[in-house]
Amino acid sequence: MFPSMKVIIAFIVGAVVIAGLEFVVEGGSLLYSMLFFVAVSQGPIAVAAAADIAGGQWIRPYKQTLFTTRHMILFVLILFAVFLGLGRVHLYEWTHWEHPGQWLNVPFFSLRNLVMLGISWVLANVYVKASLTESKTKNMWALFWLFSYVITQTLVAFDWVMSLEYPWISTLFGAYFFVEAFYCGLAFAAIYTGFRYQHLLETHSGTFKKAMMDMMTMFFGFSIFWGYQFFSQYIVIWYGNIPEEVSFFTRRLDVFGSLLYLIPLILFVIPFWILISRKMKANPKVVMAVGFLVWGGVLLERVFMLGIHMALPPVISAVEFIVASAVFFWVVKSQDDDALVASGEATPT
Length: 349
Prior knowledge:
77% of the residues lie in helices and 0% in strands. By secondary structure, the protein is mainly α.
């Protein structure tokens, strides 16, 4: 259940470096990184959990690797604790209210997010153990974990992003976030396919090509589902034409202009037209490129979400993101290596 010592060391080093960078410039750099990594840490596990519940056998070649991101949930929790400890929560306007509300107040905001991230990490580990051992309870734990996943991603949407826009509210915002995190999980599978294609072919001879096609078909399907969620959010605001709702888009159009159109282009149009081809879905380099494209689109979207509310110093934001990315790579690689050693496919180093 607990991460290995080398993962814990990576967490400590990463958190210390990021905390040190936060002392240099005050802004939203840390929140920017957390918003990305909370999606790519939970999304892959959600993909595996959904496949287990559905009884999909195609998930087998990917399952072990999808589970390697689970400890990054703990790292996001640590980063959120750093965010609170350095007083970055005061970047939110509502923290300066004379009479805080029952929901938007610093103690409750801090507690509910820390608790849900912690519960999500614990349930992820319990579910992973049950799934890998093919326990009879694996579907039950998969459901429990998916429930915590939906709540956590909804809190991220409502607390970390939507509360910046108060009094603007959207009941669709939580669903948009957990669908997008799932999309990021499928992008992770696509990226992994590109890097380890030959190895996957050798270790899952005769079954991997079909499993890959099924995974990339789901990736294609979620490009459409993401487009549906984006359009649903937009159309409700558009036909209502209520100033309190329209402000979410108009404020960003005033600042970023036509750059906003890059989001549906990157996250829907391009993946849709590439992955609609069966030949492209079977090409590991192509799907890896689309996976990175989706991650890049999510990163750009986070800039548009945060950029009008807080400073995002380019250098500090980039360095913090690189540090967090290095921790993510190390966690995934070390977990993947440990799994290969345990299965006898590699020797300890």
